[in-house]
Fold this protein.
Amino acid sequence: MDSATPPFQEKNVPWGANNFAWGEFPSSFLAMALDNIETGMAALLLSVVASELAEQLDCPEDCDCHYFRINWVTDCSESNLTNIPFEGLDHNVYILNMIGNHLKEIGPFPEDIKVRTLQLADNQLTHIKNDTFSNLQYLVDIDLSGNNITTVDSHSFV
């Protein structure tokens, strides 16, 4: 046993980070430390980018807008709204949440809006017209539950 080896310890077995010179750290320890630094930097960078993008996108008054994963969400739920706030609504909105408002009817959406998920549950809708959703070329999912819909025009979802 040489003088650098602690008593009762075999050589090359780590027994504390303070007992290694920089060049003697096990490679697995260095790799783990670098992975943690990279993960932390990536999370910080993602947070800064999301914050910058959120400041650049429009959000209607009385709504909360944020990113969920990579999707822009406009949450206007339970805001006592009687109309969808098209003015101020960013055309890149992915999810539009209008649950629990006082919507009685919906006019046609603007042509350039890219909403994919439209949540209209628990409003006061009674009629879905042909042109209501005609401009929503990217629409994949819609929730109309909890309304009093009695009439749906024949080409409303074509």
Summary: The first helix runs from residue 27 to 56. The helical segments are 27-56.
